Every structure is written in structure tokens, then in C-alpha cells.
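Sample intake — TauD/TfdA family dioxygenase
Collected from: Novosphingobium kalidii
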Amino acid sequence: MAIHFENIKEFIGSRVSWDSRDDIFTPEAAAAIRAKVEERTVVVFPQIDLSDEEQLRITDLMGGKVRLTARNNVQSNDQDVYQVTLDEKINPQPEYVLGTFFWHMDGITVDMPPPFATLLSCRIAPDKGGETEFASTYAAYEGLPEEEKQAIEGLKAVHSVRASLSPIADAIPEKHRDKVLGIGLVKEHPIVWTHESGRKSMVIGTTADHIVGMEIPAGRAMLIRLQEWAAQPAFSLRHKWSKGDFVIWDNTGAMHRAIPYDKSTGRMMHRTSIAGSEKVAA
């Protein structure tokens, strides 16, 4: 195996290089990549130009795929590869993609363990906008002052799709607004996730509507402060896409969001997800 990792920032991000492209598609490489995702949160493969079949092979080697998104899109490719686009010929309900302009974690409002990781390939990169930002909630938690760690320990937040789409609710056509806002489940999750490894991360983002047992204004203010803390430059990374880039991130320990872009740019990403094995636990 001849793949190499180079840290991008102190607390987040690693860039991959390889001697031979075939080195990526082995069980040994998959284990090393998974370990690096757990360690560094975000792993970037510059301009590797994966096919859907190759992306699915890596997904399976790293832990097995899970289909996360309901099949609203008119897919022309493998049904386990979700096309992230504002092209209404493919995505007749772009609200789900518009909602990704805000910090979030995948799979927090469904009745299964959140996906361990998300894998994204760039097929069309916009000239302006469309970058993806990542914020490590592992590093953000570890960086909190001890008194703030104690303040959030044991607290639970209520998560919903309605909360995550509230910033764009007025942009959803009225005829199907209630249906869109009502998808998914309303779930309670501890803010501090103690993983089986013993490490702790935070479960935050726009799905988090309020904190159980706390007055709404105070709870929402706390959730926003935690988002802002996690998104500071020390714990976050912005990736500007080039065609063929491939990025994997630890969905159980990171928020992410897309920088807004115009739908006329044709931005197209192909997404797969690695099944999670841990439910969110205090």
C-alpha cells in the first residue's frame, strides 16, 4: 500500500496522495483511510476522478453503504449514489439542497444510527461559490473551557427537519411546504456524544431546535453559541472544489455546509454514505 497523508490544518483535515491509483482500492487502504477520517475528521483526495462504481467500492470497503435520502430525485445513475444538485430536471424539490447552506449533520432525524461518514465526489464545480465547509465537533468540544463542558454535559436538544429548513421556509412553494417541513422524525439527542472510543463530540447544527428543560430563548442562544464556537477557523476547514475531487468526512463528529451558489452553475456532486454503528449516546 502506497498512500500518503498530509495534515491540512492543526486540528482538522488531511490530504491524500498515492503512488498508484489502484492503491486506493484495497482493504488495507480502506482501513487506513477510515482511521485517518476518525483522527482528522476530513480527508481530501484531490482530482482523483472516481466513477460511481469506484466510489461505491470505497464506501463498501470502509464499512458498507447506507441509503440516506428518500428517492425524490430522477436518478440516472446507481440508486445508492445521490446526486446533489439544484437542477430541477434531476431534483424537482431543491429545498433539501438549499437547506445544506446551513451547518448540519446528516441523518440526525432518522430512526437509525447516524451515518459514520459521508463521501462526496465533484462532477461539476461552479466558478463562484459552492465550496463546502466542515467544522470538527470533536476538536470544538475538546477546546471548550472546562466549565462550559460541565454546563452542557447531560443536556439534550430536540432535532427536526422543520428546524433545519426554517431559514428557507419562506422559499418553499406553499403547495408542498408543510409536507417538506414535516419529513423525518423529531428526535432528542444529547448535546455531548460520548462515543464507544471514549472520545466526545457535540451533536449540533440547524436541526437542533431547542434544549430540553431550558427556556426556548436561552436554549437556542446556547445552541447558536456552540455552533459559532465549532465553526471558528481553528476547528473548521473550507474546501474549494475542483472537478474530480473526492472528500470523506466523519459525520458523527463534524458539521458541514455548502457556500451558496447559483443553480445556473450546474454544480453537481455525487454522494454516498457509510453506515453508522453507534446511536447517539450520552
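Post-analysis note: The mean pLDDT is 92.
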